[in-house]
Every structure is written in C-alpha cells, then in structure tokens.
Specification:
Layout (H helix, E strand, L loop, with lengths): L8 H57 L2 H10 L15
C-alpha cells in the first residue's frame, strides 16, 4: 500500500533532511574555508615581510648613493668640483 502524504509533509521532510545534512557537513565546510583563508593570510604576510625587507635594502642603497663621499666621487669622476652651495636636497 502506498503512503499518502499530507499537504506540505514532503516539504517538511525535505527541510528536516537538509537541516540534518547541514548540521553534519556545515562545520567541516566552514573549517575548511577558514583554513584556506588562514593559509592565504600567512602567504600575504610573508609577501609583505619580503617586500618590507626589499624596501629597507633599497632605502639603504639610496642613502649610500646620496652620501657626501659618493657625491664627491661622482663629481670628481665627471671632472666637476664639489661646491656645497650648489647642492639641493629634494623630497625631504
């Protein structure tokens, strides 16, 4: 004998089944998503640290190239003479 469902009973059974499955698989899905996000955050942090190190290295190189000794050496190599009153500092 085939069972007859009351109006809305199929919908109720479907919703209860979805809720049960959601409670079973939902937490593991959200943990996997959280883990993936944490991995991406760590990767970005590593890139930021690497870029900061590169920036610091380049800043040291700029300071080295802008040193008074280097300016005098470059001026001498090009046959110029050093005149402190002609030096202008830009960007400070």
């Amino acid at each position: 004998m085939k069972r007859k469902y009351v109006k809305g009973e199929k919908l109720l059974i479907t919703l209860v089944t979805l809720l049960v499955l959601g409670n079973i698989f939902g937490p593991s899905f959200s943990m996997a998503l959280l883990s993936k996000t944490n991995i991406e955050v760590e990767s970005i942090k590593k890139k930021i640290t690497k870029q900061e190190s590169l920036n610091e290295s380049l800043e040291m190189k700029i300071n080295e190239l802008a040193s008074l000794d280097n300016i005098e050496t470059v001026a001498t190599n090009y046959g110029l003479e050093y005149n402190n009153s002609n030096i202008r500092v830009i960007g400070e």
